[in-house]
Amino acid sequence: MTQSRQLPPLRLLTVFEAIARHRSLSLAARTLNVSQPAISKSLRDLEQWIGAPLLHRNRRPLTLTEEGEVLLIATRDGLGMIADAIAQIGRLQAERDRSLRVSCSIGFATYWLMVRLSSFGVEAPDIGVSVMTTPHDAAPDAPHADVMFRYGHGRWRDGEVIPLFQERIDPVAAPDFLDGASLAPDRLDQVPLIHVDVDDASWRSWNGYLAKAGLTRKRSSGDLRFNNYVQATQAAMAGQGVMLGWLSVTGDLVTDRRLRPVGLPPVIPEDGAYYLVVPARSTGNTAVARFIDWLRRQVADMSPVA
Questions:
Q1: What does the pLDDT look like over 45-56, one tens digit per residue?
Q2: What span, in angstroms and rounded, lies between the C-alpha atoms of 245 and 254?
Q3: Residue 121 falls inside a structural domain
Q4: What separation in angstroms does the CA of 18 have from each of 9, 13, 286?
Q5: DSSP designation for 133
Q6: Residue 160 contacts residue 277 (beta carbons within 8 Å)
Q7: C-alpha to C-alpha distance for 31 and 63, rounded to whole angstroms
Q8: Does the UniProt entry include the keyword Transcription (predicted)?
Q9: How far is Cα 176 from Cα 5, in angstroms, rounded to an integer?
Q10: Beta strand 55-56 with 63-64: parallel, antiparallel or unpaired?
């Protein structure tokens, strides 16, 4: 790029605008809190950059040359646009500090986050929260999210990773399923199992659970299949079968006695827990900091990540 297409330093334009506004070098120096010699040098540097005189120095008050008038119009327009842009950025930053965009799976949002989020609203009524759901707990970076709940190994590199709690799998059913009796492992062939089809972890399936628990099932018995935990959980609460209960999805439902463990052995997933991922773009966001502080208290009594 040639010099004719480059812009002079912003400080030179700022000095020029002050001189043109006051029609005085001394008043411009006082306004900008610099010495008059410094103002004079900046004016000379700008004129050298432009390649034309900008002031009639032999007139009092100072007057602009024709070239100076042209530059003043552009300078005021440009500085005004910059000031407006900075003000808009300030407003956007203020809005960011009053809003929070959270990404998590639909099951986690429905059965873990939603039942707790009202307490955050009480604690931080000035912050608006938007929840964006994803199909899977290990979903990649959500481009517009300020924070992301994520399940997995925790070794991600797309943000600060904050451990929350260890997951636990415990088969559950409605309280009156099997008349409230425990399900003996040898009766697995006689009851319908509720499956959730996912593609990111084989042990999330019943086959994976049975293998880890050391159990076998020779045949199915009217099983049901869904592609998300919300539908599967509703089916379980309706007494339609036994589902793999994840602490993050069914833990509160068990506490509220809307579901119950059926007596099969629980499994602690290896290399799997819940984390909050905070991308670099959220650094300095006041709403994010307040949410993290609240969240740490929410998980304080849960099983820590190993």
A1: 999 999 999 999
A2: 9
A3: yes
A4: 15, 9, 37
A5: E
A6: yes
A7: 18
A8: yes
A9: 79
A10: antiparallel
> For residues 243 and 235, is the Cβ–Cβ distance under 8 A?
yes
CA–CA dist 11, 53 (Å, integer): 18
Terminal-residue alpha carbon distance, the chain: 57
Q: Which of 47, 68, 95 is the last residue of a domain?
A: 95
Q: Can you tell me which residue has the tokens 């986690």? A: 108
CB 261 within 8 A of CB 171: yes
- Counting beta carbons within 10 angstroms of the beta carbon of residue 7, is it exposed (0 to 12), middle (13 to 18) or buried (19 or more)? exposed
Q: Find all residues with CB under 8 Å of 257, minimum gap 6, and list them.
A: 175
In a domain, 285, yes or no: yes
User: What DSSP line would sit under 217-247, residue for residue?
Assistant: --S-SS-EEESSHHHHHHHHHTTS-EEEEEH
Provide the sign of the torsion angle of the four alpha carbons 279, 284, 287, 290, taken in this order.
positive
Q: How far is CA 236 from the centre of its chain?
A: 32
Q: What are phi and psi of 222, to 5 degrees?
A: 65, 40
Angle of helix 286-298 relative to helix 114-123, nearest 10 degrees, comes to 120
* Residues 91, 116 within the same domain: no
* pLDDT, tens only, 235-285: 999 999 999 999 999 999 999 999 999 999 999 987 789 999 999 999 889
Residue 131 has pLDDT above 70, yes or no: yes
